[in-house]
Specification:
Shape: elongated
Number of strands: 0
Oligomer: single chain
Structural class: mainly alpha
Largest sheet: none
Helix content: 55-70%
Strand content: under 5%
Length: 97
């Protein structure tokens, strides 16, 4: 447990669920990155839908789109034809949502 990232330990402790599964995660920890172990914990012990800690995915998408808009405005943004086509395909799929 001493080698696990602190955030992973706190996240695991704060989640409800089977104590044996939690112990398995700690015992099977083999130096994975913080993001990898947090992903495992979040998958096995998801937050309930009404939990205030639940991320707002729509807000995250908006923030990401704003960052993309900024990248597209960067003077060094010069996609080739294949990249332009792929970008436009993705935009078309987003418009269909």
């Amino acid at each position: 447990i001493d080698s696990m990232p602190r955030q992973a330990i706190y996240t695991l402790a704060s989640r409800g669920g089977d104590l044996e599964k939690k112990q398995d995660i700690v015992q099977n920890y083999k130096g994975q990155s913080k993001q990898e172990i947090l992903s495992v914990i979040r998958k096995l012990f998801p937050l309930s839908h009404d939990d205030k800690r639940q991320p707002n995915i729509a807000d995250q998408a908006i923030t990401t789109l704003r960052r993309l808009k900024s990248l597209f405005s960067h003077p060094l943004f010069k996609p080739n034809n294949a990249q332009k086509k792929e970008i436009l395909d993705i935009i078309a799929r987003l418009k269909k949502l």
